[in-house]
Amino acid sequence: QVQLVESGGGLALVGGSLRLSCAASGRSFKNYRMGWFRQAPGKEREFVASINWSGGSTNYAPSMKGRFTISRDNAKNTVYLHLDNLKPEDTAVYSCAVGHVYMPTYDYWGQGTQVTVSS
Length: 119
Prior knowledge:
Elements: E1 3-7, E2 10-13, E3 18-25, E4 32-39, E5 46-52, E6 58-60, E7 68-73, E8 78-83, E9 92-100, E10 108-109, E11 113-118
Parallel strand pairs: 2-11
Antiparallel strand pairs: 1-3, 3-8, 4-5, 4-9, 5-6, 7-8, 9-10, 9-11
């Protein structure tokens, strides 16, 4: 059974940084991609970034590119999301998800980790 466990969230100051981790287990992810999403209070969930387990190609939401960086450690089956120059509007629950590279949907989701940015 696929399990995704996020960690690394917390309270950060405006302009600060955080690194989120998503530890994946339960299957081989060779032909899968990992995505990060976020949902702020009262708002719909939005795509942040994704990375392919094989090859490492990345994709970012235009508004996230430049401040957020997605990376992976295949040996640890872990994907990271590095958040830089945080803003109050980055406050949200950040969740990771996994989906097949040839499918538009994500099949498995983690529980999420809260990121709160305060001035």
